[in-house]
Amino acid sequence: MNIRDADEDLIPSDKPLKIGTHTLASRLIVGTGKYESLSGMRDSLIASQSRCVTVAIRRERLYDGQGKNLLDYIDLERYILLPNTAGCYNAVDAVRVARLGREILKSLENPGSDWVKLEVLGDSKTLLPDPLATLEACKRLVDEGFQVLCYTSDDPIMAVRLKAAGATAVMPAGSPIGSGQGILNANNLRIILEYLKSDDPDYPVIVDAGVGAASDVAVAFELGADGVLLNTAIAHAKDPILMASAMHHATLAGRQSFLAGRIPKRLYAQASSPEEGLITSRPHPTES
Amino acid sequence: MLTISFNGQSISVSEETTIADLIHSSGIPSKFCAVEKNLEIVPKSQYASMQLADGDSVEIVTLVGGG
């Protein structure tokens, strides 16, 4: 498919994020859950500049108290939908939910009908993924022709296994879903990025879950993540629209910072002003 | 009358009730939903013709906000 407009948001020297057959104009993917109102959600999605939003599959509760439904507030020309399997605790259920999501998106004629955000949870307290069930569901969905964007922990070996199983993108959690703790183990994320991209630099690695503030988004991109997926950090911010805008700017800032190439970290200082021509003397002549 | 499971609840429906009838009674535009009968997806093209049988288990789902 074509890049969904908003080319003005692309960094000129950057290429757009490609996930399988889909190309996204923004590297930020946002969720549609937990908003106080659907109109607030719509305005936050706009402020985030995202062009890809996640949705969940549930029993018929389409209409809210005012008789409105989610799809009245999502411009299907603007957004590609990414259906998830949230709430599934085994591979069989995840495959069922993925198929149902595909069916709905097909009838909406949304291009997201061929992909899924796979989430198979192991425990309702941590919402951490069940790695064995995730791998099994990933294989089954790949066999059924899905492009699988796979939620996983930040375990590098599991990430390698999921890529080998045919996942279109691996999406490690920065920290538990909705926890707002940011990226707890940057070193694991570094290893995942190195392993998954070593012979395949464009393979998409997306940080999914744990973002609390815009700085977390910038850190993810600076580490080299291709995208960030978040929901609660915007939906539950005091001012969701303002936070959505902050997330957009952090996406651009973090990505630009990554592309620009940061300076190495050093233990000691390096003066920014010239040493030559100083009219003063050093207080401690211990250095050479 | 037939007894079926509809979204986890046991309900009675008249004989010859179709998937399309169930969707209509739920009030959801069929464009926004997907249907699973006895764990198999029901294609939209079969909504009007597929009749329910006693003991069928039907799920009608739609999209909601999620992350």
Task: Describe the protein.
The complex is a heterodimer of chains A (288) and B (67). Chain A has helices spanning 38-48, 91-107, 131-143, 156-164, 186-197, 214-223, 232-235, 240-260, and strands at residues 17-19, 22-24, 28-31, 52-59, 80-83, 115-118, 147-152, 169-172, 206-208, 227-230. Chain A is α/β, with parallel strands linked by helices and 288 residues long. Chain A has one domain (7-260): Aldolase class I (TIM Barrel, Alpha-Beta Barrel), CATH 3.20.20.70. In chain A, the strands form three sheets. Chain A has a five-stranded parallel sheet. Residues 1-5 of chain A have low confidence and may be disordered. Chain B is mainly beta and 67 residues long. Chain B is built from one helix and five strands. In chain B, 27% of the residues are buried. The model of chain B has no long low-confidence stretch (mean pLDDT 92). Chains A and B meet through strand 4 and helix 2 of A and strand 3 and strand 5 of B.
Level-2 CATH architecture of chain B: Roll
Count of extended strands of chain A? 10
Mean pLDDT of chain A: 92
- Strand proportion of chain B, as a percent range, falls in 35-45%
Shape of chain B: globular
How many domains make up the 3D coordinates of chain B?
Answer: 1
- The structure class of chain B reads mainly beta
- Count of discrete alpha- or pi-helical segments spanning 4 or more residues of chain B: 1
- Work out the helicity level of chain B: 10-25%
Radius of gyration of chain A: 21 Å
In short:
The complex is a heterodimer of chains A (288) and B (67). By secondary structure, chain A is an alpha/beta fold. Chain A has helices at residues 38-48, 91-107, 131-143, 156-164, 186-197, 214-223, 232-235, 240-260; strands at 17-19, 22-24, 28-31, 52-59, 80-83, 115-118, 147-152, 169-172, 206-208, 227-230.
